[in-house]
Amino acid sequence: MAEAHPVGFRWVMKAKERGATIIHVDPRFSRTSALADIWVPIRAGGDIAFLGGLVRHIIENNLFFRDYVVHFTNASCILREDFRDTEEGATGFFSGWNGEQCGYDRRSWVYHGDGGLSFPERDLTLRHPRCVFQTLRRHFARYTPEMVEKICGISPVLFHKVAEALVAASGPDKSAAICYALGWTQHSKGVQIIRTAAILQLLLGNIGRPGGGILALRGHASIQGSTDIPTLYDTLPGYLAMPRGDGSEATLRDYLAQHTKPTGLWNNYPAYFVSLLKAYYGKNATAENDFGYNWVPKITSNHSFFEYLYDMADGKMEGMFMMGQNPAVAAANSRFQRTSLSKLKWLVVREMVEIEAATFWRDSPEINRGELKAEEIDTEVFLFPAAGHAEKEGAFTNTQRLLQWREKAVNPPGDARSEGWFMHQLALRLIAKAKQSNDPVDEPLRVLNWWYPEDDMGDPKMEAVLAEINGWYTDLQPNADGVVFGLDREGNPHHGPQVDGFPRLKADGSTASGAWIYSGVLGPDKINKALSRNSTDYLGHGWGFAWPADRRIIYNRASAKPTGEPWSDRKKLVWWDQGQRKWTGVDVPDFPPDKSPEFRPTGNERGLDGIPGDAPFTLHEDGLGWLHVPSGLQDGPMPTHYEPLESPVHNALYSRDTNPAVHWFTRQENRFAPPGDPRFPFVLTTYRLTEHHTAGGMSRFLSHLAELQPELFAEMSPELASELKIDNGDYISIVSLRGAIESRALVSRRIRPMHLNGKTVHQIAMPFHFGSSGPVRGDATNDLVPISGEPNVTIMEAKALACNIVPGRLPRGPAFEEWIKKYVPQGGPPNLHPEQPPPGAPCGRAGGGHGLDGKIDNR
Known about the structure:
Blueprint: H1 6-17, E1 23-25, H2 31-35, E2 38-40, H3 47-60, H4 66-72, E3 97-98, E4 103-104, H5 132-139, H6 145-152, H7 156-168, E5 178-180, H8 182-185, H9 190-204, E6 214-216, H10 225-228, E7 235-236, E8 240-241, H11 252-259, H12 269-281, H13 305-313, E9 319-323, H14 327-330, H15 334-341, E10 346-351, H16 356-363, H17 365-369, E11 380-385, E12 394-397, E13 402-406, H18 419-435, H19 443-446, H20 462-470, E14 472-473, E15 511-512, E16 545-546, E17 574-577, E18 582-585, E19 682-687, H21 703-708, E20 713-716, H22 718-724, E21 731-736, E22 739-747, E23 754-756, E24 759-761, E25 763-767, E26 801-807, H23 815-821, H24 842-845
Parallel strand pairs: 1-2, 5-6, 9-10, 10-11, 19-25, 20-22
Antiparallel strand pairs: 3-4, 7-8, 12-13, 13-16, 14-15, 17-18, 19-26, 21-22, 21-26, 23-24
Helix pairs in contact: 3-6, 3-9, 13-15
């Protein structure tokens, strides 16, 4: 965190100054480790085993926060009789596995009884053998300190030191936070790693309380914003599902029936979705035409980045827009990425500099080796100069869900323009072209409500976009107060007053909102709260706007006892005011304001009326924090340790090595090494440097940053260097089944050998910022990384893979091909791993997410 998120780490140091204990878990000793109280070196890919060991320790030693767990989590909920855990026979499979479809039938994972997820049967004593708590206890029973050592290389002494520190920092008057970044997400079980952390924090009572929570440290200033208002293929703004084109959601009624929950906040799904359609299509969206539902694109198969990369490689894709992305360096198997770009007819790149994705056709490693020839590449590349962050205005959303507005400092130079300008001007041209057509396929463009007023440069006024995101009443009210940007680009009245929050949104077409979760950021008071800079309390109210409803700590009903009083004076946040009969406190209560803690539903209620007064997690139908996930995940209701797709060892806990539901993207250019392959004996993990930013487009081209970190290196232990006869600073070649790269050796005790069940395993760590363009150049580390898809979000496994290290420089030019044949087998099937499916199998290709292709539909 100190290296990749130095500004955020400032607050960690503030906490340390006030007595907080800092624990750092990382394969390598970094600047964060140097400032931590405890450093825990871990074998890359062993996170669930380590966290699961902590879960077991807390349960078996009765160290969990009982009142919190009993009332606020689903620990007491009874599971079905036909549910089977991975522990039964240590198979690594839950009940419902279908090997032919490479997926789970998840119906056995839900609660027992007729109450569904809304009104589960519960045993508040936590003694029922099928209650979630007892099932969780059995699930993690074998995750002992000794097993943690076998899998992770963490000694029992160090394990107990961490466990004791974590428990000591949790309770009624204490709390602990967990911070993670790509080191957890970029795994074949990344979602389940984070789920294990959530289980840990729920058991300790650290969710919904000051100083607690799980913080995802984002790699950019607005990664949170780009999932809230997504750049993803399978979700719409506000985490609404993209409709399916398989016939199951043919009408608006079908779609809403699939996604509207009987109780909780998602019972208001129709209001959120119809308001979004009104934002998209304006007056063209009416009740008679299902508010334009037929115009919304539908998912017909998996449309993830890796899927269309394969289409690109196979000549099935003509062109691509690339904005804020450089897959020629940053993406998994970037060697294959560059080759695939050469199959396009056209490529639009918007960037501030000439990145590798724009120059692959002339100076990529494949050109230098003769694998590609510039004169044979038909791809026409259009490079559009882009504005930097100081040259445009708009909102960023950080990990705290905090919207902060950035004002433009200067105009961009020359022809450089913002993303807003580019998309706006492109839309105007496409809409004009569509209006000249009678083709039904162009109808969704013709009906778009593209109303945005412009500034002098032709940019859409971004506060007008924010006003639409917030939402307004759709009826024109010319003299009404609360109207913001009420005129369209031609000067015509466009909409009514702003709504003051998402509870005002309706499903009847009377409201529009571009993202329901952001509603309230620019309301009828006409104040852009993202631009506010007057903090009034320690939570930061008055500085920016935190969704939803400016709540700084989500699920904060959990900061009070089940009866409504604060757990302690030191940690008081919101509480029930018996005199006023409402929730009050330092934060905006994340709970119905007048719902008494004593309220219990009868089982017939809908929406928030079906949530008990002591159930803080209102996005769930039962209002409870989920230790066991009865619905929503593709690869299991409870986290399970699986080895990385490439691993030096077999799974010590189960007969199954890898996550059964993972997507391998099987292809000859994307092979995986089998477990313990002696040709690739070392573990490789990647990380970020402070001096560079992701693929390097914003840092390698700046002389002062390039000078600070001018060259690619691989960090290795003195023991490994001695074994391979490598000195510090030597050139080395690193090889995987996907390719080979060259770097310098950085020999350091910051990374150490791991001892796993009697076997010594060496790890190396490499940054991934270098490429073939700019003043400082180097090979792309991601050339070594395989393409894979975690079952829920289709992210690749970049933090744990197998490699070999060859002392000396990598041959250049045509000699490379002969050299790599000595270290990488060229023939054989594409599925070398024994658990990897062949090409064409459901999990050999298709990715996860909402748009599941070949998956079992148990929504």
